[in-house]
Amino acid sequence: MPRKASRTASRPSVVPVQRWFQFLESQSAQDIALPVSVLFALLVRWCIGLHGYSGQGTPPLYGDYEAQRHWMEITTHLPVSQWYSYDLQYWGLDYPPLTAFQSWLCGAVATYIDPSWIALDASRGLESHTSKQFMRATAIALEFIIYVPAIVLFFRSQHTKMSWVARQVSIFSVLLQPCLILIDHGHFQYNSVMLGFLVWTVYFAAQESYILMAVSFCCSFMFKQMGLYYAPAVFAFLLAQCFRRKHGTVLFVKLGVAVVATVGVMLGPWITSVDQLQQILVRVFPVARGLYEDKVANVWCAVNVAVKLRSLFDAQSLVRLSTCATALAFIPSCIHLFYTIRRQTRTMQPTAIRVFKYCLVNTSLAFFLFSFQVHEKSILVPLAPALLLIDEEKWAVNWFVQVALFSLYPLLCVDGLQIPYWVMAVLWAFLRSCPACPAHTPTPKCVMVLQWTSMLVMLALHTAHAFVPPPSSLPDIYVVLNVVYCCAMFVAFLAYFNYRQFTCLQVQPTLKQKKD
Predict the structure, then answer these.
(1) Could you give the C-alpha distances from 162 to 136, 278, 390, 391, 485, in angstroms and in order?
(2) CB-side neighbour CA atoms (13 Å) of 94
C-alpha cells in the first residue's frame, strides 16, 4: 500500500535531486524511490561500460582490464601455489588473497560460458566484444552484491536524524558518485568490493556488532591492501570499546580470534609454506616500485616538482620518511576517537559513530597524502567514508568529490574516457547543485566564493589542456599542475575534516527521524 505523504514534508528545494524525492513523497510514491534509484545507477554503470577501458588496444601489456582478466586465467588454470609467482613480468598477481579468490570465482563462471576468454597464455590481450561484456558484468554484479546493499542499509538504518527525503537523496547521491563509477566501470577495477566491506564495517559498528565489524574490515584489506588505510581508525574504535566495557577483556579476545580466523582462512592455501607467504607479502607490498606511482596528487609527488626526493634518498629512507609523516598526520584523529569512545554513554552512540566516520576520512586521507607507493586511484579510499557524511557535510563532500574527480582526469584521459568524465562531472554538479545554491543551503558565502574559484581553476586547466599545446620542454605541465593543485586541495580537506572531527561533539542534529 502506498504510504501517505508526510505532514512534515520538506519544503520545496532548488537542488534537483531533492526536488525529485520531494515530488515522490508528495505523490505518496515512496515505495518506488529505492528501486528507481538502484535501476538508474545500474543504467549509468552499463552506459559507462560501453566506452573504452585501461590499456585497450595497447600491447604488449595493455592495462588494468587485462590484469583483472589475466588473474582469472591464472587462478582458474594453475594450482594456488603458483598464483603469486607465475610469470610476474606479465601482470603478476599483486593483491591479497580475497582478490585472488574473486578472480577464481569469476574465472569459473567464464569457463562455463566460454573457456576461450581465459585460456592459459593463449588468451592474453583478448579484447572480444563478448569477453568485454562479461568483464563489465562481473564488476556490476559484485558491486550490487556487496557495495550497494551496504549503502542502502547504512542510510536507511543508521541515520536516525534524517528525514525520508534526506535518506533517499543520500543513497541516490552515493550510488551516482562519479569517481567510483568511472574507475570501476570505465577504467576497470573492482574497488567497490573493498569499499563495500568498509561500509559494512561502519554499519556493524553502529549496530554494536563488533565481531562482524572486525570480520568485515578484514575482508576489506584482504581484498585490497589499500583497505589498511582505515586500520588506525578501526583499531582505535575497537580498542576503545574494549576499554569502556565491563568485560572488555572478553571482547578483546573475541576480536583477536575473529581477526586471526578471518585472515587465517584467507591465507589457508599458503599457510604451510613460509616461502609462499613471503612471496605474497612481497607482491602485496611492492616497496621496490618507489615512493609513488605515476603522477598522483599526494604530497611526495607534488614536492617532487621542486625537490627530487628519489634522487636524494634511497628507498628505505623514503619508506621511513613516509611512515613517520603518515603517522603524524593520522595519530591526533585516532587519539581523539579513542577518548571519545571511552567517554561515551548509550545516548552518545550516534555521535560516536559520527566521530568514527570523520576519523576514517582523516586516517585514509593521511595515508593517501603521505604514505609510500600511492596510486591516483587510491583517492577512492578516503572518498568512501566521506560520502557517508554527505548529509552532515553537504558542501564539503560535494566539493571533495569534484576535486577527486579532477585529480583522476589524467588517468581517464589516457584511457580515452573524456566523454564519460564530462558527462559524470556535469551530472554530479547538476544533481547536487555544486557549488550549492545559496538560496536554499546554509553554505557560508566565503565557502561559496572558494568553491566557485576552485571550479574556475579546474575549468581553466581543462581549457588550457584542450586548446593550448604544452611546451616541448614541459610535455607534462598540465598533469603536474593538476597534481599540485589537487594535492593542495586535499591537504585543505584533511585540515577541514580534522577540525570537524574535533568540534562535531559541540553540534547536535535537530531533525526528527521519519519512518520509511
Answers:
(1) 35, 48, 12, 8, 35
(2) 16
Question: Shortest CA distance to 185 belongs to which of 417, 348, 351, 376?
Answer: 417
List, for residues 247-276, the tens digit of each pLDDT value.
Answer: 889 999 999 999 999 999 999 999 999 999
Give residue for cell 552532515. 392
CA dihedral in degrees (311, 312, 318, 322; nearest 10)? -110
pLDDT tens for each residue of 198-241 = 999 999 999 999 999 999 999 999 999 999 999 999 999 999 99
Contact in structure between 297 and 490 (CB atoms under 8 Å): yes
Please answer whether residues 386 and 393 qualify as being in contact, where contact means their C-beta atoms are separated by less than 8 angstroms.
yes
Q: Which three cell numbers stand for residue 365?
A: 586521507
End-to-end CA, the chain? 13
Q: Quick one: angle between helices 164-175 and 16-26, nearest 10?
A: 130
Distance CA 5, CA 299 (A): 50
Question: How many Å apart are CA 134 and CA 27, to the nearest integer?
Answer: 39
Helix (H, G, I), strand (E, B) or coil at 377: helix
| pLDDT digits 0-9 by tens, 31-51 | 999 999 999 999 999 999 999
Q: Are 334 and 359 in contact (CB under 8 A)?
A: yes
Global pTM value: 0.93
In three-state secondary structure terms, 500 is helix
Of 211, 205, 200, 182, give the one whose Cα is nearest residue 379: 182
CA 502 to chain centre: 23
